[in-house]
Amino acid sequence: MPLDGVVSMYVAAELAGRLNGGRVDKIGQPRPFALLISLRNQGRTHRLYLDANPQQPQIGLLSGSLPNPERAPRFTMILRKHLLGAELAGVECFDYERVFSFRFLAKNEMGDLVSLTLIAELMGRHSNIVLVNKDLRIIDAVRHIDSRVNRVRETLPAHPYIAPPRQDKLTPPEMLAALQSGTDPFGTSPRTIHEQIVRTTSGISPFLAREAEHLANLVDRQIAGLSPAERQLALAMYETFLIRICNGEPSPTVYYAPGTTKPVDFHVFSLAYLKDKKTVDDLFLAMEQVAVQADADTTFAKHKAALQKQLRSRIAHADKRITIHAADLAEGDRAEQLKMSADLIYAYLHRIEPGTRDIQLPDFTTGEPVTVTLDSKLTPAKNAERYYRRYRKSKIKREVASKFLMKDRSLRDYLASLETALEHASEPADLEALGDELASAKRREPGRHASADADERPGRPASKKRRAMARKKKEPKQKANKPGDVRPGYRAFLSSSGFTILIGRNNLQNDRLTLRDAAKEDLWLHVHQAPGAHVIVKARLEDLPDGDVLEAAGLAAWFSSLNKGAESAVDVDYCPAGRVRKGSGQRPGQVIYEGYYQVRVAPQNPALLRPGDAP
């Protein structure tokens, strides 16, 4: 977000025009480094928002309020003590830096009028909000910085306030004056034009500096490689660019991600080199739109990362179970060898001397000598019985391990399908649906109840009491949806011919879409033998043009684990939804289908299709 020095100067001027003379009505701290200050001015309430978050510092006027913590932080209490009822006397931003000064006139405990200044330094990882007195001595700050962090600028109560060091650059008015006097700021720099502008002029971000390159039609050209005519043109356009910055009328603009309506940037000027944009009447409205979207993106990324961490943990657990049960199965495969040893001992009891440790006996089938190890403390007959006991135990272990290995692999495949769905999650509704399914799947996972624990420890008998207690144990209750709580719907698109295409966001939706909501004649599609979403086209196969079938197949390929980009080719199966059914014991999203066709397609980017209406 380009909160550069140019925007900062216009923001300070706009805030001064709206807030000067207003009185502080409320002070809250909705986020760890953020303040929301309500001021009453000329019968209107203005909400000043300051956020010193190192990742995303913000300033602006909000159209609505934000929830505050139940217990006010220490910094909030100090601000309330000193600033509630105070009058805002001035707002300033100096030298095109992202440092804002809010000067208040307040009454102290003795009733005397004193001057206090709230300074908002919104400079990335160095951001802070500091309250100082008239002698520039710090009263408190939202972030305490001691000498271990910054030996030059300690920001602690009772310490003198030291302003951020000034950059070794000219301000836009100073640079404009230098250009008009004949100074060439470009020199023989090997940098591009916009890089040199950012390096020599304060308050100008790369986002804004690219406009000067665009005006001169010298985008990404190195200064050292410019011809004399091109250099003169670049200097002339730079001068025009600076005149606009210093004297031009602001035109607050929101900039969107290419081809979308998602706000990603704002500026006080409309920049010609960017096409996806919209000019708005209020600078703070533009800033709020971008900030709300940035907050939503941050929340989405954190939620997605949390689900990915949870899913990776579950997959690792499933892989560990597979390893354990595969080892048990391999050990169980020795059962027949144990039985053969027991049979050989019984068959040749007369040849085995007491106290023998190892003996070679002829194999019943081949006649080849087989080495049998004996316990010298036991009689030959007892050794045979010991081998038979080990045989029975190994046989049971093999049967049990085989059963649970099948379940483990089924669970691993199911979790892989969730992983694929999570990779393709692109909006909050996707994460909400997947979060619901993960919670539901956790309740059904093996090993969560006593009966399952008993069954999954081969060779250990489960007591009747433990089994009875497990049967009485109730499943955890699902939380009922609150009134008005709407579950996310299917993804919906329109084919080129106008047919509705529905896609499940998770396995629970896949089951509901395919087995309940789809008509038997609707076309069903799924990637061949790999995790992926279920796709339904609300039409019969005979009524669909070939192009629409390919589009739907491309979507099935896109929302699958086989999506490796537009250049990849994926096999997709399709048939009427009536030929798809649920097998006994299958997990959500897993189905059986027959009488299907297959087509090989490249993944279809859903952004290229028109959105549809989900039922």
Q: Can you walk me through this structure?
A:
This protein has 14 helices and 23 strands. With 615 residues, it is an alpha+beta fold. The chain has a 7-stranded antiparallel beta sheet. The protein has a 5-stranded antiparallel beta sheet with strand order 5-6-7-8-9. Strand 5 (87-93) and strand 6 form a beta hairpin. The longest helix is centred in the middle third of the chain and has 50 residues, at 283-332. The radius of gyration is 36 Å and the shape is elongated. The model is unreliable at 448-456 and 474-485 (pLDDT under 50).
Structural class: alpha+beta
In terms of DSSP E residues, the strand content is 15-25%
Overall mean pLDDT stands at 89
Distance between the termini: 37 Å
* Number of DSSP-assigned strands: 23
Our Rg estimate from Cα atoms comes to 36 Å
The strand line-up of the biggest sheet is: 22-19-17-18-16-15-23
Major sheet summary line: 7 strands, antiparallel
Q: Count of helical segments?
A: 14
Q: What does the overall shape look like?
A: elongated
Which regions have little confidence, pLDDT < 50, spanning 5+ residues?
448-456, 474-485
Number of domains: 4
The amount of helix comes to 25-40%
A few lines on this structure:
With 615 residues, this protein is an alpha+beta fold. The protein has 4 domains: 5-141, ibrinogen binding protein from staphylococcus aureus fold (Roll); 172-248, Helicase, Ruva Protein, domain 3; 308-463; 491-611, no CATH class.
